[in-house]
Design a protein that fits this description.
With about 130 residues, the chain is an all-beta fold. The protein has strands at about 5, 10, 25, 30, 35-40, 45-55, 55-65, 65-70, 75, 110-120, 125-130.
Amino acid sequence: MLLQSSNNNIHLLPALLDGWQTGRVSGLKTRGGFEIISLQWKDGKVSELIIKSNLGGNLRLRLPNKIELANVKLIEKPTGENSNHFFQTEPVKTPIIGINANIKPLALKETFLFDIPTTKGKVYEFSPIL
């Protein structure tokens, strides 16, 4: 999977197939009015990312590696709800878990979360931090 939009963020490269660890795609449209002009990845990590903001507002981006944006300080590890109203989600009730349930945590890969303030019509070019 190349892109997932849930939990108030856009998640790039959340679940790549083993044989597809390197590639390039363009033209993806996402929730919140963002357009992936270019996404390139190598060894399962983002190596090039160019995004256009068609509506403006906060872009909460989840990636498998750290990135930087020239002359902009990214807010790493944001907390709370995304301020972009296009990402509003309905509240979900907390599940009831039985006292005898044996629930093991999922073995998820490490990801990095960023908040990026965007302006309508502007293009943003990100670089990986090596």
